[in-house]
Amino acid sequence: MLTIYGSVHSRAMRVMWMAAELDLPYENKDWLPRAPETKTPDFRALNANGRIPTIDDDGFVLSESMAINLYLAKKHKSTLYPSDLKNEALALQWSLWETDRLDRQIVDYQRHTSQLPEAERKPELAAKAWNEAVQALDVLEPALKKSKWLAGPEFSVGDLNVAAALYRALAVDLAKWPQVQTWLKTCWDRPAAKKVRAIREK
Question: The whole model's pTM is what?
Fold first, then answer.
């Protein structure tokens, strides 16, 4: 049995999307980052960092959302995991690229422009985050002009990992990057993505 530790309101959402794509049953421990449950000895025995998401897949414990999704897609021999070596490498490349170039940036931008109480917002942090996000989107746009998908001829774990991490960008004006905008909408229009998004937004 697969157990996913982490709330849909966290990066665990990416893992839940993958599980939905693979039609995998799972138990969900609905814990937010830094929740008291993540500080317990039992959870620290699973993940010494106390971070979510973490999975327990019949005794195999793994953390880091991108790695989890790559593992699940490959384990279940899904078409979402590229069979071609070069496309596999591209899926890894884009997954790792996103964690460095867009993940925190989009989060910080939204927090300091709309999500935090106004008194807690820091415009300088929002501006810095947006500047970095723009640079990353400027890289993603031409890549998606060359190919509809990031890692081969079909939607793959590479697309899922990047698009899932860009959930908050669905509420951002991406008109300057039409290829990114179209690609992101197409990814999130998938039935599995809609299912998980509905859980988060209910």
Answer: 0.95
- pLDDT at position 93 is 98
pLDDT at position 131, please?
96
Q: For residue 4, which phi and psi values (nearest 5 degrees)? A: -110, 115
Crossing angle of helices 85-101 and 103-110, rounded to 10°: 30
User: For the domain bounded by 85-190, which CATH number is listed?
Assistant: 1.20.1050.10
Distances (CA, A) of 151 to 64, 87, 176: 20, 5, 23
User: What CATH number matches the domain at 2-75, 3.20.20.70, 3.40.30.10, 3.30.1330.20, 2.40.50.140?
Assistant: 3.40.30.10
Helix (H) / strand (E) containing 116: none
C-beta of residue 53 within 8 angstroms of C-beta of residue 196:
no
| Residue-wise pLDDT tens digits, 141-167 | 999 999 999 999 999 999 999 999 999
Six token digits for residue 101: 């170039």
